[in-house]
Amino acid sequence: MKRTIKIMLFSITVLVATASLPVHAAFIGLSPSVQVSGTGQVVTIDLIAGDLGDPIDTTIGLFDVDVSFDNTVLSLVSFNYSDALGSVISNDFFDFTADAYTDETISGLNAAGTSINLNLFSFLFSGDLELLQSTVTTLASLTFNVIDLEMGEFTDLDLTVLLLGDGQGNDLSGIDARGARITTEVSAPSSGIIFLMMIIALTPLVRQTKR
């Protein structure tokens, strides 16, 4: 009898603990996470949000993030928002992106030119946002000139999440923030991948030998 009661109590504890955990943890990050480039080239980095559920049960209704970069390596050319939070033509969102210090600089760029602030608030309801968003959604795109990145070097872009909220205005917690790296070198395939490639290449020869 005592053993049965213990099992029941344990089961209840597990159920309560499981119910308190989120089904999935949303992330916001820069994509691609690794990009190969070099001096004189142009790169585009997307701000994406993912793991929103399938079908979507979480939407992004507002975000406020800083993207930091080394301005001795990268020069910000431009950025634009996607339609994930609504249309600019229909005034579906409010752009809180802070204006920089002079009209000659890009809006949202800090005085040092090392960080860009991206900040939108959508007026749309969750149901409307679901039609615009998917399990992985692009929120914005940034374009950089690579001004100084020689062979064997790399530079990182860091993402700081100041605020991220769902379509109902609730703060999302436990968010996984992911930065990105621009490098001049393509990483060599692992030994396991090389071995697999050798097997694939030798398969026709093995078949011919059996015949």
Give an overview of the whole structure.
22% of the residues lie in helices and 36% in strands. It contains 3 helices and 11 strands; from the N terminus they run αβββββββαββββα. With 211 residues, it is of the alpha+beta class. 22% of the residues are buried.
Tally of DSSP β-strands = 11
**How confident is the prediction overall: mean pLDDT?**
80
Strand order of the largest sheet: 2-11-9-4-7-6
| Residues in helix, % | 10-25%
Low-pLDDT segments, ≥5 res: 2-23
The helix count comes to 3
C-alpha-based Rg, rounded: 23 Å
Which properties best describe this structure?
211 residues; alpha+beta; 3 helices; 11 strands; globular
Secondary-structure blueprint of this entry?
Elements: H1 2-20, E1 27-31, E2 34-36, E3 42-50, E4 60-68, E5 74-81, E6 93-95, E7 115-122, H2 126-132, E8 136-146, E9 154-166, E10 176-178, E11 180-183, H3 191-210
Parallel strand pairs: 1-10, 2-11
Antiparallel strand pairs: 1-3, 3-8, 4-7, 4-9, 5-8, 6-7, 9-11
Summarize the structure.
The chain has helices at residues 2-20, 126-132, 191-210, and strands spanning 27-31, 34-36, 42-50, 60-68, 74-81, 93-95, 115-122, 136-146, 154-166, 176-178, 180-183.
